[in-house]
Amino acid sequence: MYDGVQAGLRERQRRPQCGHSSLEDAFRGLLQLLGRLPKREFNPSVHHVCDKPVDASLVLISFRGTEPFDADDWSTDFDYSWYEIPKLGKVHMGFLEALGLGSRTNAATFQDNLQPGMHPSKTAASEAPMLASDDMRTAYYTVRGKLKILLDEHPNARFLVTGHSLGGALGILFPAVLLLHEEIEVMKRLLGVYTFRQPRVGDRQLEKFMEAHVSVPVPKYFRVVYCNDLVPRLPYDDKMFLYKHFRLCLYYDSFYVEQNMQEEPNRNYFALKYLIPKHLNSVWEFIRGLTIGYIEGPEYKEGWFSMQVRMVGLVIPGLSAHSPTDYVNCVRLGRSRRVQMACIKGKE
Questions:
Q1: What Cα–Cα distance (Å) separates residue 241 from each residue in 69, 85, 90, 234, 335?
Q2: Run means of pLDDT, 10 residues per run, the chain, 348 residues
Q3: Catalytic residue among 229, 282, 326, 336
Q4: Which part of the chain is the Fungal lipase-type domain (predicted)?
Q5: Active site annotation includes 336
Q6: What is the model's pTM?
Q7: Which three-class secondary structure state does DSSP give residue 234?
Q8: Does the annotation mark 215 as catalytic?
């Protein structure tokens, strides 16, 4: 299973501009891995799994996404406040809080946790006293400590980070803070970061910092976006808010055709020229939801809840496009438009 994951990632890294089979191979391996092995929780928001109990080759870290009926999670997604970190730049404050790296009620807590080179630990054993401290029992320090222990137990293993929605934001911020804390030995064993439905997490300085570390010499970070999904287009990328995505975006249209871009179309969602196409597309998605089980097979049939979400999409297309159903179908049914896609940088 790990061989499929690693081969898929290597193919994607060699040819980021084309090819869907690499993504499918990688995540077929991941889905098999997750389906067959028991997940273990660091805390209610994070899971980990190894491909083998002894001498593992892969450690998978998965951050949970936005809960559908959790107001705190949704308010975090729609938050626009930021905190400026030396070296990294301006970073979304709500996501930093979700990682347990500070609290807006006491801004000094961010400074305590987000100084360059702070709290580095060279060995897995040195994490134990930190995890025993109440101040260090946060998502970031718990995940970092457990990851180091696992990498120490499995010296041939590399780790992969993934997450969806809110979890996607935490998934890319986790290695960013590892880099800030100068956890160089840990980062040498990073295999890749795949995020799904991820909102923006920081400004252009963070973009430049991360691209220097996860895109060179080969890309290790891939951001998957389906069609008109609202959440990846938040917070806004404009002159007021200045939030930026960074590459590579694997964008899927409503026919599950993959295109490789720097930024998804309609980057701030509310551009008027996309208003009618978005609603027409949601009608097509509703019809597709009714028929896909007959066309692709019974395992693709959408249940009553999924169709209720499709109905909401007739009014607010960006919400139904955030459904996990379409992201799973991107992996299972997606195909690549095998051409080099131009980066979308113009104003919309």
A1: 27, 16, 10, 10, 34
A2: 55 49 54 48 71 91 75 62 91 91 89 79 54 63 94 96 93 96 94 94 94 86 96 88 88 95 91 94 97 96 96 95 94 72 42
A3: 229
A4: 61-237
A5: no
A6: 0.83
A7: coil
A8: no
